[in-house]
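Residues pack. One example:


***
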Amino acid sequence: MVNINNQDGLLLRGTLVASRIDSGVTKDEGKAWCARTNMITSGSRVFSHRESGLDPTQEHQPHELGARVVVDVEYARTEAGMTTCGGTLQAEDNGKAK
C-alpha cells in the first residue's frame, strides 16, 4: 500500500456510498476480467471510482459502505456531469490514509 499522508498531488477524500463487483469475459480474446466500481461523495458532489485489473480467479467483495476513503488520483475524466477517477483507494483513519 502506498503512503499518501505526505504526498503531493490530487487526492479525493470522501465517504463510500456504493460499491459493486463486475466481472465477465472479453469479446475479443475470451479472457476473464474483474473490476470494482465505487461511488464516493465529498458532501457536495459524487464521484465514480473504478478499480480495474482485479484478479478474476480470486473472490472479491464490495467495500464497506459509509467508510471514509482517500483516493490517490491517477486519472480523472468528466462526462455528462459525472467525474470518474482511477487510482489507489485506501481507508481513511482520523483524516489520514491507513
The CA atoms of residues 48 and 84 lie 5 Å apart.
